[in-house]
Structures are given as structure tokens and as C-alpha cells.
Write a structure and sequence with these properties.
single chain; alpha+beta; Tetrahydropterin Synthase, Chain A; five-stranded mixed β-sheet; 5 strands
């Protein structure tokens, strides 16, 4: 089994708001992240796939195809977007880094042909990241 990781970067804005919370609860729980005008992050995404090396090609996955899938399914949909208002997964889900990792997994997993998705890692800042392994 070989693990291969591809990295990409994107920028997006969001805000945290739970409609079941009162205005006070939202402010207390989410602080500055509850600003309805949003705030932005520069995210780093790492997508790790796993599989056996194809004896004919020598690849676990065609890196060009993996890059194109990440571009189509994640970057084109999320880069320079207001997640709450432009990305369907976040119309009713709070776009935390945890939920972002899950949404990216759900977008990518069914699109991979030969290799299997092993991990999605999303960095919100250089010292904060979330790993998702598909158990949700």
C-alpha cells in the first residue's frame, strides 16, 4: 500500500451562526466568527490517497487526474467564495474547519477511480489543522 499526498491552497470567507442559538449565544460561542459580514482565511488543503502501484503505469493514481479532480470539486467551488452563501453544503451547516474537511471528503471520495481517499487535511492557519478520515 502506497500513500500519496497532493497539496493545494485556496481562500474563502465565512461566518459561524447557529439559527437555534440566540443572538447572545451565537456571540458567546462563536465570538468574532459570528460577524454576518464574514471574515476570510487562506486555507491549505492536503488530500492523501492510498492504493497499490499499478504495475503497468507505475502510479497509485495519475497525478494530473487527481489535480484536475481537486480543482473541479474543491477549488473551483470554494476558492474566493463566501462559503455560507455560495457553497451548498454550508447553506445549512456551519462552515467550521471540521465541516469543511468533511464536505471536501464527500466531494472527492466518489470521484476517485483507482486510488482510495485516505485523508483530507485542512489547515485554517499554519498551526491549526483538521484531519478527516471518512468515518462521519
Amino acid at each position: 500500500m502506497v500513500y500519496l499526498t497532493r497539496k493545494a491552497e485556496f481562500s474563502a470567507s465565512h461566518y459561524y451562526h447557529n439559527p437555534d442559538f440566540t443572538l447572545e449565544e451565537n456571540r458567546r460561542v462563536f465570538g468574532k466568527c459570528n460577524n454576518p459580514n464574514g471574515h476570510g482565511h487562506n486555507y491549505t488543503l492536503e488530500v492523501t490517497v492510498k492504493g497499490d502501484v499499478d504495475p503497468r503505469s507505475g502510479f497509485v493514481v495519475d497525478l494530473k487526474q487527481l489535480k484536475e479532480t481537486m480543482q473541479r470539486e474543491v477549488l473551483h467551488a470554494m476558492d474566493h467564495r463566501f462559503l455560507n452563501k455560495e457553497v451548498p453544503e454550508f447553506f445549512s451547516r456551519i462552515p467550521t474547519t471540521e465541516n469543511l474537511a468533511i464536505a471536501i471528503w464527500q466531494r472527492l471520495a466518489p470521484k476517485l477511480n483507482h486510488a482510495r481517499l485516505h485523508r483530507v487535511r485542512v489547515y485554517e492557519t499554519p498551526d491549526l489543522f483538521v484531519d478527516f478520515y471518512g468515518e462521519a
